[in-house]
Amino acid sequence: MAKRNVFVFGLNDFNLRMLEQVRGAEDIEFHRLLDESELVERKQYPIEQILEHARERLRAFPGSVDGIIHYIDFPVSTMVPILAREFGLPSAPLSAVLRCEHKYWARVEQAKVVPEYAPPFAAFDPFDDDALRRLEDEVGYPFWVKPIKSFSSYLGFRIGSPADFHEAMTRMRAEISRFAAPFDNLLERIDRPPEVADIGGGHCIAEGIIGGRQCTLEGYVHDGAVHVYGVIDSIRHANRSSFGRYQYPSSLPRRVTDEMKAVATRFMRHVGYDNAPFNMEFFWDRRRDKVWLLEINTRISESHCDLFEKVDGTSNQEVAVDLALGREPRFRHDAGEFRVAGKFFLRTYGDARVTRVPSAEEVRRVERAIPGTKIQILAREDADLSDMMDQDSYTFCLAQVFIGGDSQRDILAKYRRASEMLSFGLDTVREAA
Question: Topology of domain 120-208, per CATH?
Answer without folding.
Answer: Dna Ligase; domain 1 (3.30.1490)
